[in-house]
Amino acid sequence: MKYFECAVCHQQIFFGASFCEYCKAPIGFVASEKDMGTFRKDSENEWVSLNESYRNQKFKPCFNYSHYQVCNWMIPVDDENIYCESCQLTHTIPNLDEPENIQYWRYLEQAKRRFLYLAQRMNIMPRPKRSEDDRYGLRYEFLMPMEGQPVLTGHANGLITLNAIEADVVYRETTRVTMGENYRTLLGHFRHESGHYYFDVMQNRHPELVDEFRYYFGDERQDYGMALKRHYEQGPPSDWQDSYISTYATTHPWEDWAETWAHYLHMMDTLETAYFAGIRVQGNGRTLANLYFTECPIGGKDIEHILENWIALTFNLNALNRSIGLDDAYPFKLTEPVKDKLRFIHRHVLDKAFKSSQASHPA
User: Fold this and answer.
1) Where are the domains of the chain?
2) pLDDT tens-digit series, residues 134-179
3) pTM higher than 0.85, yes or no?
4) Which residues of 338-359 are buried (b: 16+ CB within 10 A; e: fewer)?
5) CB neighbours (10 Å) of residue 106?
6) What is the bridge-based pairing of β-strands 73-76 and 27-30?
């Protein structure tokens, strides 16, 4: 993620914040500018930008910003929408009569906005689903499980359902340990499930890429239910690390794709943060690789250098974590088959195979 600066005091401001921690100026994300803006409040629904490149333009806070503080995105003041581009994607939220649910909703929206920021930076920002038959839109439902009514996180036909209890860190960590996973986060859920959505976009818009997909990931036409049953009964193959990013990726080509897609997004977001932070590692030429940037990773042409930087960065992140007694920040291994899958994704992100809002492909 880029580094943002307050237009008043010029201190760093963070993507999830609603005011500058230093000068207390109100701030919000302006999607059209891909920027965190600093504002002067003329009224509750008229905020004037203080940022140089769009100074004096007027905005209003998203309804969920001003009424629930679960959002921090802005909308042009004359826009007829009351919800921002992120909140328009949310179709169902937990019952807010339950006090803890608003906090769960807040955490879910924070993770969703982080995912959407990267999607926007990659020029694959999804648009709201217009109807049940809309093949290219996206919709979210955040559902709380009830007695006798479990909620399964998943994707189907442009609808992503998330079990809202995953926003409870104790529940999520308990599930992670019970499932034998070494990584489980809300952001990871959003990125994984988006992989299923973007696979459908690619398959619908660019069916000519499906054969190439099958070369790297396998034939997705195999029975998914049987594959899932086999995975939970038998577990992954003993040599799974040779070709897959995770044990769950071994379940079915769809899950291999979604897991690898999520890791591609992890890689791009983290490397972009390192790029804007100016992080550099001078290796020793033997066991410690160099880390340096010649271009921004997002939209970068040299995937081999991107992969080299990712391996160097995660090695050092893991070493730093171990130095203070924490688990590895990135407990995964990139083998050549996994790198080939990441190369496939990068190749077709650049050619916009996952862009969902082309006018030539109406709902």
Assistant:
1) 4-83, 91-350
2) 989 999 999 999 988 999 999 999 999 999 999 999 999 999 999 8
3) yes
4) beebbbbbbebbeeebbbbeee
5) 17
6) parallel
